[in-house]
Amino acid sequence: MTAGSDSVPELLPMVFADPGEALTRARALLDADPSPLDASVAHQVIGIWQRDFGDLRLALSHLRRARQYAARADSADREADVLATLGVALVHAGRTREGLAAFERGVARGGGHTRARVLYRRAYVWWVLGHHREALEDVRRAIPVLRQAEDVIWTARALTLRATVHLALGAVERAEADFTAAEALWDTTGQEHDKADAVESRGLAAFRSGDVPAALRLLDEAEERYARLGTPTFMLNIRRCEVLMAAGLAPEALAEADAAIGKLDGIGGQSTRKAELLLAAARAARLAGDPHTAIARAALAVRLFAGQRRTWWETHARLVLIEARHAAGRGSGRLVADAAAVAGKLAAFGAPAAPEASLLAGRIALGLGWTADAERHLAVAARSRRSGPPLARLTGWAAQALRARAAGSARGVLEACRRGLDVLDDHRMTLGASELRARATEQGAELAALAGRASLVSGGPRRLLVWSERWRATVLSTPPTRPPADPELLSGMTAFREIASRAEAARMEGRPVPALEREQRRLERQIRSRTLHMRGETPGGGDRFDVGRLLERLGDEVRLVELAVLDGRVQVLLCGQGRVRRFEAGLLADAETEAEHVQAGLRRLAHPGAEARLPVVEAAGRRLEELLLGPAAAHLGGGPVVIVPPGRLHRVPWALLPSLRERVLSVSPSAGSWLRARETAPPPDGRHVLVRGPGLATGGAEVPELAGRYACATVLEDDEARVPRVLEELDGAALAHIAAHGTFRADSPLFSSLRMADGPIVVHDFERLDRSPYRIILSCCDTALLASVGADELLGLVTALLPLGTAGVVACSAPVNDAAVVPLMLALHKGLGAGLSLAEALRDARAALPGDALHQATGWAFSAFGAA
């Protein structure tokens, strides 16, 4: 390209069509001794590139030179255009006053079409600063002129900006109309970066309307588009953090925000974006239960926003700062006043976050005993319960529940909690991925706790049971949305298995595996991302729990023990003989500590020579019984017992507790889940499947003998034990026994796995089954380990199977001795062959083992889940 070329003006739109090519051509133009007018364009192009994708200091240097060349060329429109670009850069650098002054000069210098472009960019700056009404006014003035000039690119940009401002003000329908109009215009252009931005903006609109899966899908699509252009995505990082937080993935949002801040600092990027990322990090840290990190991030964000004269943003950062201080245990009249002041400012701005601030002021005031002040603030927050996106309505119902509690109305508390949780149910069922459904329940934890306390006061044990079930293991109440027949997802799963298998082989041979591990993590992220895009298919929130139906099914012999937790103490709800009784036991925190001691003891006992630890483990079991069952232990009767623990106690080896040791004992995530398992009919064909994975210490020694007992069983071992074939045979089987190494992934529970010949079979694989086996036995270590997430949800192998048609599972929650497992499994199958249930057969199998410490510990480590 040479100076004076007719194609020089094309460089400016090229910055957002092909940024790298635009930068290369602009530099080449400057090397060719251009005219002042062309030099102005080239420096402006480099300035835009550096402003949006690189070093802001370099951007300012190039833009000032661009203005000098424009003045030398004596082109008022050229100078006005550069002044607008410079104004945006100055504001992003935190020099707000200078930036707005540049716009004043630009508006004055430009005329007609050029002035409209300057007004559009000033509208963008008003949006960055949080001055939404001013932004709407400028863009209102710009759009008709741009349309009249048939300027498709700038009209589409202006419509996209107006839609974004509408979203900030909560006007989702207006935003969607503008986004639709802008997208139609973008389709007629080659502006690839602008098109990616439009996809990103549609993701934000989907999020604001409550469609989290669509938001995640669109943001991922936008990221792929940006990656092809080689441009950074800081605004996208901020928006994805918002969506991740709403989905209950706050730790991931915090990691993404912090990583983006580091990258932005590394290139000397925009100060405005850094402040926004700090705000996102502060919100994420607070939601992740790290108030001190939240305070540090929010305080820095407040300072940056104040220096940038961004009052709207500063006010939002102050809200997060107050929330974090309250979460850290601070409560004072000053904090109430600060929250109230923030609520007033947000309301004046028309910000959707205003009810959150009023709820916070009311909550702090309640903690101080200031009921009149609390009522005033909570009444304002409660107005949001009638309209808006789900999480905004949830805020309103939380405020209404707190109002009722302050007024002493247990009925009012329960009604508000019911309505609020119904809203969250509807939102949760739009999520297709079981992980998102589970994590989303965290939003209802406060309502569930309020309802639990109120039901205990007003309705006794039966009502407490209903509310305990209302928000326990809700993910298991309906089958998950099946992953689609997505070629990319399926090929990703195949590649993941291959890489994981190669990495495992390399570890066993002592070869380095960092590159393989990096690729495995990349594939895991890809698979998880595509599953999170799934939208829910099941309307409503699943079956409502019926106490009468439960008691009828239990009859006179079976006892179901549901453990609820109120204010940190275990409440034992003993169900059976047509009634529900309540007993108070110990502190949950003490029980968790004791359970960890028991796990450590069982790990020691899995190795020969640790017999001296047996009395210690048994003593810990007695302490656990006192903490978890208390006086209820004396009222269990002589029949079978079903234990329904809270999620945080999923690792307890219940058979170790003295009063449960000799019983027919099963465990269930909820009473409703047990009922569904009890009423699940076995498949008609009665197929048996035996699977033996590679690398077992005993070689899966029980499998050949079991194959002899089940003459018609399908046996998959060696090269036949490959994931596709295993899944095919498991689908709809009556009984499956899988002897394979289990790996529990606390960091990503849906990648917990069983090792097959061609690599791991993971929870995501099981969720693709039309119907999982009616009964399934997992004979190796750690197969019953689960991750406690959300309000009271569990993610892992066992809970993946229960909603898919599995009525009973036997699995292990601790490391065990492989050799000692073999006789336990053979005895278990002997009982099944005699017509016993899994729980009955497991009890008899424990009793048939040798009496030494190693075999006893092995028996205690296994549990029967469900009701088959």
Automatic annotation (TrEMBL):
One Pfam family, short name: CHAT
CHAT domain: residues covered: 619-861
Domain of life: Bacteria
Gene3D superfamilies with a match to the protein in the record: Tetratricopeptide repeat domain
Name of the protein: Tetratricopeptide (TPR) repeat protein
